[in-house]
UniProtKB/TrEMBL annotation:
InterPro entries: EspG. It is found in: Cytoplasm. It comes from the Bacteria. Belongs to the EspG family. Keywords: Chaperone, Cytoplasm. Its main location: cytoplasm. This is ESAT-6 protein secretion system EspG family protein.
Length: 223
């Protein structure tokens, strides 16, 4: 993965608008900077000047490589999103989009006050997205599948041992959690505990499984 650019949130939003790419993509969507037209014009001018100083724009136009990356994010062949807390105690939120088209993958990650852009040729956009998460081993135990109602209400349980196992994972302590989702497709929740990671998916029936990064990729790309 090759580091392409590091932008402020305002820099990312302004560059996106300057290229006429439409609505910002989830989960990188940001409120437009500037409440009035005059304030907006000042912010755009300041951002473009800052991008030029950083070598990311020239004469008011975004750098060609950055432009290509943003256009790929806007119109991918496939894409995967990440949104969640990688560190619950610290409140560390991560938002990421890994988008692929014609063999190139662009990864955009927003943390705190920066949006980073990275590009690579080849590889899996799903693996690229999951790679944003901290490395953790699979948690102990086995895969269990239970009715969602058994977890939500504590009512009659399907296979009591499986329900107890699923509840034990969901009861915590949870040190990190969030969602990885295929654009227009499957969504998988990651649950990090002090003992390892679990993946959970499903609606009426919930499957909770020990999963490292490879396990997360397998679940999010499963047909």
């Amino acid at each position: 993965m090759s580091g392409l650019a590091r932008l402020t949130p305002a820099g990312f939003e302004v560059a996106w608008e300057q290229l006429g790419l439409g609505a910002l993509p989830y989960p990188l969507d940001l409120e437009p900077h500037g409440r009035t037209r005059a304030e907006r014009e000042r912010i755009v001018a300041d951002v473009l000047a800052d991008l030029e100083r950083g070598g990311l724009a020239r004469r008011g136009r975004v750098d060609a490589d950055v432009e290509d990356a943003l256009r790929l994010l806007a119109q991918p062949d496939s894409a995967f999103t990440v949104l969640g807390l990688v560190d619950v105690e610290a409140g560390e939120l991560v938002r990421a989009l890994a988008a692929e088209r014609r063999g190139f993958t662009v990864l955009a990650v927003r943390r705190d006050d920066a949006v980073t852009l990275d590009v690579r040729r080849g590889g899996s956009p799903a693996a690229t997205a999951v790679g944003v998460l901290p490395h953790r081993p699979p948690g102990p135990g086995r895969t269990v599948t239970v009715r969602a109602s058994a977890l939500a209400t504590g009512g009659p349980a399907h296979r009591d041992d499986e329900v107890r196992a699923a509840r034990a994972v969901l009861a915590g302590p949870i040190v990190g959690t969030g969602h990885v989702a295929a654009l227009g497709g499957r969504s998988v929740t990651w649950i990090d505990t002090p003992h390892g990671r679990y993946a959970a998916d499903g609606t009426d029936w919930i499957t909770v499984a020990p999963a490292d990064r490879a396990g997360m990729v397998a679940r999010i790309t499963r047909n």
